Amino acid sequence: MATKSSLAPPSGAAGALRTPDSAWDSRQLSELAQELAQLSVRELTRTSAPVREPRFIRNVEALLKRGFEPRQLADMVKLVAENSLHLSHPRYMAQQVAAPVPAAALVDGVVSALNQSLAVWRMSPAGTMLDRSLAQRFKKLFGLPRTAEGTFVPGGSFANLTGLLAARAGLDPKAWTRGGANIAVLCGEQTHYSIGRAAGIMGLGTASVFPIPIDKARRTDAGAVAGVVKKARKAGYRKFILVGTSGSTPTASFDDLVALGAAARQAGAWFHVDAAHGGGFLFSPRYKRLMRGVARADSIAFDPHKMMFMPLSAGYVLVRDGALLHRTFEQDAPYLFSAVERDYPDVGRFTIACSQRFEALKVWMALGAYGEGFFGELVEGVCAAAHAAYEYCLQSQVLEPVHEPAANIFCFRLRQRPKNAAASSRLHFALEEAVNGSGEGYISSTVIDGERTLRIVVMNPRSTAKHVLANLKLVERLAREEARSRLLSRPLALLSVGSLARSPVRP
Ligand SMILES: Cc1ncc(COP(=O)(O)O)c(C=O)c1O
Asked: What's the CA dihedral at 417, 420, 426, 430 to 10 degrees?
C-alpha cells in the first residue's frame, strides 16, 4: 500500500550520487537503473487495484514535503507511481491516452539517455535516418505519394496546427510574411477543440470557424458542406479549409472522407483530416475501411500515442505536397541548419520545434519488433471490448447506450434519470466521480446533445469485456445506491462527495 511504503534509510555515504563525480558512477547508476526498470515493468503489467489510490491527495501532499537522499530516489519514484493514475490497469478506460506498448515504454528511457535533437541532422545523424524511414512508412500507410512530407510533433493539437499552417501556406502564400489571411475553417460540430484553437493561434480568429452539422451517426454531414461554404462566403470568406475527423473525440465517429474529399474539391478547399485518434485503425484489416478516402487529404494529423498505443508523446503530421510543408516555415538559421543539401534533411526546417525529441526510436523499434499486424490486433481488441459494453447496456435495466460504438469509445447513461437536463448532468458527473474515487475502475463523461453522459474509452489492450462489464456493473451498483438514498429522502447523496459539493457541473 502506498501509504505504508516507507523510504529506506540512506545507506553508505549520504552524499553518494550527489556530487558531479559520483552522479555518473556507472556501478551505482546500474543499480538505480535496475530499480527504475523494475518499477516500469510493475506499472506496465499492473492488474491489482486500485486504479487510482483513493487517498492519493493526502499521500502526495505528504510526499511533496519530504526531503530525500539520492539513494532513496527509486523509493520516491515508487511512491509517486503508487499514487498516480494507473493507465495500464485494465479497468482504466477514461481518456484517449494509451496503456503503452511495453517495449516502446522501455525504449523511451533510452530516448532520454541519447537526447538526440531531431531538428538538426548534425545533432542526430542516425536518429534522422530512423525518423525519415518512419516518414516513408507512414506516408505509405496513409496512401500518400512519396513526395509527401511528415514529421513528429508533440501531439494531435500540434499536428492540427501544423496541418492548418500548411493549408494557409497553400491557400495564401504571402500570409507568412504579410500576416493575416482571409480563410474560413469548416468543420463538424464534434471536431476537437484544437482546430478552433489553431485558428485562434494563427490569427484567423475563432470567428473564422464554421460548424457543419452532424448526421445521425454523429459524423460530419458531407451533404451540409455546400450550405456552410455559402454561409462563409456570405460572411466574406473566399478561401476554405475543410476538416474531416477520423475518430471524433466524444464518440469515435468516423467521417465519410470520400464524400468530404469530394465536397472539398467542389469548394476548392484544402482538405485536412484529423486522424489523431483513427490513424492507428489503418493497421487493422477489419477497421481500416473506416479510414477510406484519407489518401485524398491534403494534410493529416495522426497520433501514434493514441491508437498505436505509444507512450506520450508521439504525434505526427503529414502533408501531401511535401515541398509546401518545407515552404510553410520560411526561415533560415545558419547556426543550426546545414549550409549544403544532404541526403538527410534538418527536420527543424519543416516543423515548429527547434528541439525535437527522438520519438521515432520507440515507434520504429515497436513497429519493427511486433509488425503491423500486432497493432491491428490491439485495435480490434479494444473495439471488441467497447462493443461488449454496448451489448450489455442494450440488456441492462439501469443503463442505456447513447450510440452504437463504431470503434473503442462508447457513451451510455441511466435509463431512469432526472427529466431536468442540469440535474441529469449533475447526477451523471457524480457517478463518474464516484467510480473514479472508488479505486475500482476509471471512466469519463462528455456532453451529448446538451446532456452529460458517461463514457468509456478503451485504450488498454489488456482491457477485455470482463473489465468493461465490471466497470458498468459498478456504475449500476452506485446508481442503485443513489436511487435508494433518494427514496430515503437523502437526495443526491453522491453529490456530496469531494469537489462536487463546491462546484457547479457543466453544462
Ligand atoms: C480527434 C482529436 N484530435 C486531436 C486531439 C488532440 O490530440 P493531443 O491530445 O495529442 O494534442 C485529440 C485528443 O484527444 C482528438 O481526439
From this structure: -10
Pair 330, 387 in one domain: no
**410 shares its domain with 496:** yes
In a shared domain, residues 314 and 351? yes
Q: What is the pLDDT of residues 198-224, one digit of tens each?
A: 999 999 999 999 999 999 999 999 999
- Residue 247 CA to ligand 1 centre (angstroms): 10
Residue carrying the nine cell digits 470568406: 237
Among protein residues, the one whose CA lies closest to atom 8 of ligand 1? 156
Distance (Å) from CA 451 to ligand 1 centroid = 22
pLDDT one-digit tens code per residue, 309-323: 999 999 999 999 999
Q: Give the type of residue at 340.
A: V
Render pLDDT for 407-422 as a digit per residue (tens, 0 to 9).
999 999 999 999 999 9
Same domain, 57 and 168: no
Would residue 175 count as lying in a domain?
yes
Q: Which of 340, 370, 400 is the last residue of a domain?
A: 370
The Cα–Cα gap between 404 and 422 comes to: 25
Is the pLDDT at 6 greater than 80? The verdict is no
What amino acid occupies position 272?
H
311 C-alpha vs ligand 1 centroid, how far in Å? 14
Write down the mean pLDDT value for the chain.
93
Question: Could you tell me the residue range of the domain that residue 448 belongs to?
Answer: 374-501
What type of residue sits at position 266?
Q
Number of compact structural domains in the chain: 3
Give, for ligand 1, the residue of 153, 306, 317 to mutate: max count of ligand atoms closer than 8 Å to Cβ.
306
Each residue of 71-114: pLDDT tens digit? 899 999 999 999 999 999 999 999 999 999 999 999 999 999 99
Q: Are residues 252 and 159 in the same domain?
A: yes
Answer whether residue 23 is part of any domain: no
Contact 294, 254 (CB under 8 A): no
Residue 73 burial (C-beta neighbours within 10 Å; 0-12, 13-18, 19+) = middle
As given in the structure block, the three cell numbers for residue 402 are 447513447
- Residue 336 maps to a domain: yes
Residues with CB under 6 A from ligand 1: 96, 155-157, 160, 192, 194, 245, 247, 249, 274, 276-277, 303, 315
Residue-wise DSSP of 51-94: SS-TTHHHHHHHHHH----GGGHHHHHHHHHHTS--TTSTTB-S
CA distance 357 to 472: 39
Going by C-alpha positions, the residue among 274, 244, 239, 277 that lies closest to residue 258 is 244
Which of 43, 59, 91 is the endpoint of a domain? 91
Q: Which of 97, 152, 157, 190 to mutate to test the pocket of ligand 1 (most atoms within 8 A of CB)?
A: 157
- DSSP helix, strand, coil percent of the chain (3-state; round to 5): 50, 15, 40
The predicted pLDDT at position 125 comes to 96
Mean pLDDT to the nearest integer, 440-447: 98
Q: How close is the Cα of 277 to the center of ligand 1, in Å?
A: 7
